[in-house]
Design goal:
Strand content: 5-15%
CATH superfamily of the largest domain: P-loop containing nucleotide triphosphate hydrolases
Helix content: 40-55%
CATH architecture of the largest domain: 3-Layer(aba) Sandwich
Mean pLDDT: 82
Low-confidence stretches: 84-112
Structural class: alpha/beta
CATH topology of the largest domain: Rossmann fold
Amino acid sequence: MMESYDTLWDNCLTIIKKNVNEKSFNTWFKPIKPIRHENSVLTIQVPNKFFYDWIEEHYLNILKKSIYQVLGPSGQLEYKIVVDTPTKVHEPKPFDRKSIKNPFVIPGLKKSKIPSNLNPKYTFKNYVEGDCNRLGKSAGDAISKKPGGTAFNPLVIYGGVGLGKTHLAHAIGNSIKEYDPEHNVLYLTTESFTTQIVNAIKNNTMDDLLNYFGLIDTLIVDDIQFLAGREKTQDIFFNIFNQLQQTNKQIILTSDKPPKDLEGVKERLINRFKWGLTADVKPPDFETRLAILEEKIGEDFAKIPKKVTEYICFNIKSNIRELEGVLISLMAHASLNDKEIDLELAKEVIQKFITQENKTISVQNIAKLVADHFEVPMEKLNSKTRKRNVVIARQLSMFLAKNYTKSSLKTIGHNFGGKDHSTVIYSIKTVQNLIDTDSLFKDTVAELEKKVEMSLLH
């Protein structure tokens, strides 16, 4: 009995799964549906043309391998591309460049003169990449070289306030213009887009507006969450979106949440937002925050001591905008008050940005951090053992407890098997001597101090 097309495709997927990582498999192969098998030809259905282009470009050899093994040397693969016919809200007239009226009130507009509204300061050169934004940055690199020709269309960048979504969107636009100066990029906020819609309705120039957007090669719309509740604007945007997609134009959107969580936005529009790639931008980790500050210091500011930038990054972690605000405020205080930029000034400035500079940490919390670092069981720190690694861990715990808690020497000693205060003093002096004489040990202490300080922020 001839095997069903479902079984044949399942066999292909088994082979494919062994040759790609799980994320790629789930993204590019799970959505495919087998629909027919006739005369050694297996037909599969893919969601859209961009999906087809991507798997053909990146996974053709794997597909050939799986078809060969499942169907034999004569096996072939055919595609059926889903064509989603949109509900027509407004059918634009064919483009007529001679009669077009520019909704931005620039008479005699020609394609090469469309203003992009891009901020030239936002580029990839000053965009710091980290784990928090790598997916969006990588997609942006690919789009820059081939706008409208990748699977990332639309590209939806989402994340909280001040995390660099707008910077990334502008950077992609500027990079596209760098590769091709004749490419028409247009950046708009959702608010300014809505204003254009309102003006077009008032002036009865909706056809001109739609034709104008037809001249755009890459459209970037910031903060699409503000489309919520604006039904007429959504209808027009739906029409423009389809118009650009059908002519292989690039669309880039930013939002404070993923498309599936957008409230007050029509389902048909949300479905289109999900056609391409949705990339989140998370709060940056400590290393990325430090790299961002160092980028800013190198670009606009005088040299700031490393311990100061580290202190700022330990205490400000919610978003990039706040990091930059602290840095600017620090420089202003130093300049206006003729002060040296040091840790004390940084502490003074940061107090204005956070309601509580540090949380408290217990002696036992510190002991746990040190025990984990040295891979020593916690109970060993309270024992009488004289093994060197345990003794060092115990002494270092006492040293850090003295510096980071308000506990008395007696209380600290009590937490380590009832040691008296003279033992605690001896331990603190021993650690300080090792810091002064052993650079490797000094680095270990510095690393543990960072861990303690980071724990104060959680």
